[in-house]
C-alpha cells in the first residue's frame, strides 16, 4: 500500500521551492535576442538550430533565458 511522503511545510511567501532558472551563460545572452525574434516570427526550434548552427539544447536554453529576462523586466506602462 502506498503511503504519502511527509511534505515539508509550505513556504510563507507562497513561492515554489525550486524555480527552474536558467543560469547566466554568456553564449545564451548573445543569441537570446535572435532566438526570441525568430520564435516570434513562427520558426520552430529545429529550424533555428539549423540556421544558427547551434545545438537544440543551446537554442532552447537561450530561449528560456530570453523569456526569463523578459519576465524580470518591469512592464512599460502605456501613457
Silhouette = extended
Query: What would you report as the Rg, rounded to the nearest angstrom?
Result: 18 Å
- Stretches where pLDDT is under 50 for at least 5 consecutive residues are none
H/E series:
HHH
* N-end to C-end Cα span: 60 Å
Q: Got a strand count?
A: 0
- Provide the structure class: mainly alpha
Number of helices: 3
Helicity range of the residues?
40-55%
Strand content: under 5%
Average pLDDT figure: 80
How would you characterize the largest beta sheet? Answer: none
Can you describe this structure?
This protein has 79 residues and is mostly helical. It has a domain at 26-72. Helix content is 51%, strand content 0%. The chain is built from three helices and no strands.
Structural topology:
Blueprint: H1 26-40, H2 45-52, H3 56-72
Helix pairs in contact: 1-3, 2-3
Task: Give a quick set of tags describing it.
79 residues; mainly alpha; 3 helices
The gist of it:
The protein contains 3 helices and no strands. It is mainly alpha-helical. The radius of gyration is 18 Å and the shape is extended.
Amino acid at each position: 500500500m502506498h503511503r504519502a511522503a511527509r511534505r515539508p511545510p509550505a513556504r510563507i511567501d507562497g513561492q515554489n521551492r525550486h524555480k527552474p532558472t536558467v543560469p547566466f551563460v554568456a553564449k545564451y545572452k548573445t543569441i537570446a535576442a535572435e532566438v526570441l525574434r525568430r520564435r516570434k516570427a513562427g520558426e520552430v526550434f529545429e529550424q533555428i538550430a539549423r540556421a544558427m548552427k547551434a545545438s537544440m539544447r543551446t537554442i532552447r536554453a537561450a530561449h528560456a533565458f530570453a523569456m526569463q529576462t523578459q519576465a524580470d523586466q518591469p512592464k512599460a506602462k502605456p501613457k
